[in-house]
Amino acid sequence: MSVVHAGVSGVAWRVRLREPALRFAQLFAVSGFAFAQPLFDILGKNAEFFAVRGSTPGDIVLFALVVTFVPALVLWLVELVVGAFSSGAAAVLHYVFVGFLGAVFGAYALKRSGLDGTAALIVGAVAIGVALAVAAWRLRPVRSFLTLLAVAPLVFLALFLFQSPTSKLVISSGTAQAAEIRTRATTPIVFLLFDEFPVIDLQQADGGIDAKRFPNFARLAASSTWYRNTTTVSASTTVAVPAILSGQKPRRGALPILRDHPNNLFTLLGKRYRLVVHESQTRLCPKSLCKQKGSSEGSRLSSLSSDVRTVYLHLIAPPELEQRLPVIDESWGNFGGNSGDESSVPAASDSGALPKVNLSTFYLSRVSDFNRFVASFRKPGPGRPTLYFAHILLPHTPWLYFPDGRARAVTTTNAPGRNGERWFNGQLATQAWQRHLLQVGYTDKLLGKFIARLHAVGLWDKALVIVTPDHGISFRGGDLRRRPTGSNLADLAFTPLFIKYPGQTDGRVVDSRHVSTLDILPTIADVLGITIPWHVDGTSALKGGAGSGVVDVAGVRAPYRAALAQRQASLARELALFGSGDWGARFDGTGPYRGLVGSSVSALAVEAAPSASAHVDRLGSRLLRRFPRGSALVPSPVVGTLSGVRPGQPLALALNGRIAAVGVAYRNPGGGPVRFSLLAGEDAFRTGRNAVSVFALAGSPSSPRLHAVRTSLAG
Q1: Cβ 219 vs Cβ 212: under 8 Å
Q2: Stated pTM of the model
Q3: Fewest beta carbons within 10 Å, which of 423, 474, 504, 688?
Q4: Distance between CA atoms of residues 282 and 257, nearest Å
């Protein structure tokens, strides 16, 4: 009798557990498509996301397991708790959860299919979620199918960990030893690598450096060799930097890690030199040679979690909401960019407190990184010489700095005008260019600190000093920002390269040779008298010859002479827009009406535009109401929304009765309100309250008519 009773009890338990198990399988299947598959797809193909942050195999596996199992497990446990009180309520909740996960997957699938309307995306996602929930509730075959699909997340997990490019980081991290070289070199090396910096940024009409705007680059050029016709091999940082440091052409699929680039500057000099290295987007220096401060496990996982969340929201968010997220295509990690070091945080003056700003939008760590790098310089002495290397993400976007170091008070780092890689609005591309050049001005200010420190510790005359960026950037309406095309190739390819050889005192400009960034490592070896013990694709810049007859950036090629002509045309375009010498009003306006900047409103023809209104965003409004004396934060661009104004309408911004900026109304791809972004100069703001007015412009640029738009500040 007891045996029969035990058998019945066992059957009862199996029946009791069967329904919860089936429900978990269904939640597991749908959550796999909603969360695991989208994230594994994008991050599996972009292993740099994990590589540049130094994620360990354990970090990556933990991330994968959490994404695969935790969402379904949490929802299932909630169902079990509810089921303990009411089985009917638990059943209803189950289908609500299925519908929610279906809607999330629907948003991802619809957005990936090209649907970019905010309302359409939301309605479509909800419809998919409701349809899935109803079908699972009413149709047994659907429930059975979802149960069978529970194997899919396990397949996604396996493919991510063992088949995707990320698998290289999971299976093996790789090791490398310092190269066996014979040298008695005692020359210190200082290598400052900037980022996203075309050579035309620095140039004036005669091809020389604009010493008024960039006095410290002019000072550097006066004592170094400027290879004016240098080109990069890639416009991607994680490809361009390893090529510079290894002297080898990029290999498809290679990650910016030691395993894929064991032969590099650091392993070449590691046995002879003391290494002081800061890598921001690569991990090429072996831990045995570079004592870089690593992140703790907690901070590493916290950063990973935060950035994964940002990536995922970009995958599913409607375009209008996506614009408010931190950008994810400007670096491979720390999308907020806050290092936690507040030494560079703009401080309030005694005259008034600054409004609270989300410091994660300020990317302050790059300035802190630079300051730490410069502070590490020491007087050369007996013993091992030192290689100082830093990759600093300046003047790289986000463009937040004025030349004097003041920062833009912005609630989002996204410069408007770009949809993915493409500039969809020509005037906004020009405004982004203005912000970029102003940040180059700040980069010049930092370079002055760099040079002063080299002089102070006695490295200036003794060291081999190299200053260059990894690649350029392009600002052309309708064209791509960083992906090379036939029309933007010169903007991306040509970069400034300055090499100050030990003891060099007089400047020299080299135009006769086409130098590649692949030539930098062979040049270092040539100066030190070292034979590089691996094949390199570059040659020393000290050798003779004209260099390659082709410019090649990521497979987009052009004859060298044709690329030079394109660069000259780009320089002419830049000078036509922004001139040279003082910064001035050319950086405060875009479009045909930009000549209005500086004009008194009272001297212009003004009439009302009763149906139009402009609303300034909350942060800008706060500073416009009370602008502190000596404020380190400046509310420029002044941004907000418009009603009664069409996209493409020319606009002017007046501050305190004078035109401070000129731009254009625009709407982001995917819909949403009409917006404005007007780039006023930092000196246009006065202490205390600033009177602000927006005008719609009409008539000819020589005889404009201003239509006053009702302008309000956020409460």
Answers
A1: no
A2: 0.88
A3: 688
A4: 6
